[in-house]
Design goal:
Blueprint lengths: L5 E2 L8 E2 L6 H13 L7 E3 L3 H10 L6 E5 L7 H9 L3 E5 L5 H5 L14 H9 L4 H12 L1
Parallel strand pairs: 3-4, 4-5
Antiparallel strand pairs: 1-2
Length: 144
């Protein structure tokens, strides 16, 4: 189900999103309880920006272990990466090879093939006897 709030009922004549009014702080405290109960060892967040992370750090008793965000050469998010490094929060990339939506939205400079067909990436790959995917993944790894 996406988004998670979506209530899907195939027989419903008027599907809708029902918002649950729970603060981020209350949600984080519940996740901390899972650590305290030894049901998990690490907790983190997804799709937070620097402002949301700053807010989280102001009330978190348990430091976030990681953040998962979209990271690739079309969306490098350098300020967020820098903030996470300064605050010892591990970054986990989703769509590290670029999102197909970038092609659909013509954000790939109308190449129609996304990052894997970018000239600079394919040239680097050829020069180092690697695939374009390996070049992009290494780029992400080297950034931390």
């Amino acid at each position: 189900r996406y988004p998670p709030e979506w209530i899907h009922d195939p027989n419903c004549s008027n599907p809708k999103i029902e918002q649950i009014k729970v603060s981020k702080e209350k949600t984080w405290k519940a996740m901390e309880d899972l650590v305290d109960k030894k049901l998990t060892t690490h907790i983190g967040v997804c799709n937070y920006n620097v402002q949301l992370l700053t807010d989280l750090l102001s009330y978190a008793n348990i430091h976030p272990y990681c953040i998962q965000v979209e990271l690739h050469p079309y969306l490098p998010q350098q300020a967020l990466i820098d903030f996470c490094k300064q605050n010892n929060i591990h970054c986990v990339a989703f769509s590290p090879l670029g999102s197909p939506s970038y092609i659909e939205l013509n954000m790939d400079k109308k190449l129609g093939g996304g990052l894997l067909n970018e000239n600079i990436i394919t040239n680097i790959a050829k020069n180092h006897n690697k695939t374009p995917a390996q070049v992009i993944l290494k780029w992400n790894l080297q950034r931390g």
